[in-house]
Design a protein that fits this description.
about 240 residues, about 15% strand, alpha+beta, 9 helices
Length: about 240
C-alpha cells in the first residue's frame, strides 16, 4: 500500500514537471519578445529576463506575479511574468482597485500626463457642493458625478495626448489591478487589439472556459468598476455611465 502511494505521488510530481517543462511555441515566444521590446523600449534588463522566462516558464508566485496561477499553462505564466516585470521596471502602470481614484494624479506626477490645470483631473471634483461626512453624497450628487464621468475620462485622454502618449490597457482576466500602458501613437496603432495569449482555462476557481490576454484601448469600463469599489458607489448609481 505504501509503495503504491509513493508511486502515485511520484507520478503526480512527474506529470506536474512535464507541464511546467512544456516549451512556449515559437510564434508565441516571438510575440512575447516583440511585446516586451516595444513596451520597454528595448530595455536590456527586461529583454534578458523576458527571454529567461520564455526559456524556463515561471512556476512561483514571485516570478509569475499573480496568486493562484502556478498551475496555469506555461504560456500564460510566462506572459504574466513578463507583464509583472514590465510593471516592476516602470514600463507599465499597475493601479489597484482601492487606489484607482489616484490614477490621474499618478500619471501627472510621473510626467506622463499634462492636465494644464483642468479641474476634471480629480474625479472627486465631479461632486457638486459639500459632501455630508455622515451620510455621504446625496442622490443628486451621485447623478452629477455620473454625468461628469465622460468629461473626466476625456480630460485624462487629452492630458496624455499633450505628452505624446496614448493610454492603453492590458486586458487580463483575474485580478484587482488596472494595467495601463502609456504608448506612443505609433505603438498604440501597432498593438491595439492584439491578442497576446489565448488558451483553455485550467483553473477551477476561474469561472470562464477560456483565457484571453489582449492589448486594448483604455478600459474605462474597468476604471468605472474599480471606482464603484473605491468610492462605495451605491448599487442604484453603479451602472456604467455614457462616456462616449
Amino acid at each position: 500500500m505504501i509503495r503504491r502511494a509513493i508511486c502515485a505521488a511520484l507520478l503526480l510530481v512527474s506529470s506536474a514537471l512535464a507541464v511546467c517543462a512544456q516549451p512556449i511555441p515559437e510564434k508565441q515566444a516571438q510575440l512575447f519578445v516583440d511585446f516586451a521590446r516595444d513596451v520597454s523600449g528595448n530595455d536590456p534588463q527586461v529583454m534578458s529576463t523576458a527571454r529567461d522566462l520564455i526559456e524556463t516558464p515561471p512556476t512561483t508566485l514571485e516570478t509569475i506575479g499573480y496568486y493562484g496561477l502556478e498551475d496555469a499553462p506555461a504560456a500564460e505564466r510566462t506572459l504574466r511574468g513578463i507583464i509583472s516585470l514590465l510593471d516592476a521596471r516602470g514600463h507599465i502602470l499597475g493601479i489597484e482597485d482601492k487606489y484607482i481614484n489616484e490614477m490621474p494624479l499618478v500619471l501627472e506626477q510621473q510626467g506622463l500626463a499634462d492636465f494644464a490645470g483642468d479641474p476634471q483631473r480629480d474625479v472627486m471634483t465631479l461632486f457638486p457642493g459639500e459632501i455630508d461626512p455622515e451620510t455621504g453624497p446625496s442622490d443628486d450628487q451621485w447623478r452629477a458625478f455620473r454625468k461628469g464621468f465622460g468629461g473626466h475620462v476625456r480630460a485624462i485622454e487629452a492630458a496624455m495626448a499633450r505628452r505624446g502618449h496614448v493610454l492603453m490597457s492590458l486586458d487580463l482576466p483575474l485580478g484587482d489591478t488596472l494595467h495601463l500602458w502609456c504608448a506612443s501613437p505609433e505603438m498604440a496603432e501597432k498593438w491595439r487589439g492584439q491578442v497576446l495569449y489565448f488558451g483553455r482555462n485550467t483553473l477551477d476557481r476561474r469561472y470562464f472556459p477560456t483565457v484571453t490576454v489582449a492589448v486594448t484601448d483604455v478600459a474605462w469600463n474597468d476604471y468605472w468598476g474599480f471606482l464603484t469599489y473605491a468610492l462605495f458607489i451605491p448599487e442604484r448609481h453603479s451602472d456604467l455611465p455614457d462616456y462616449e
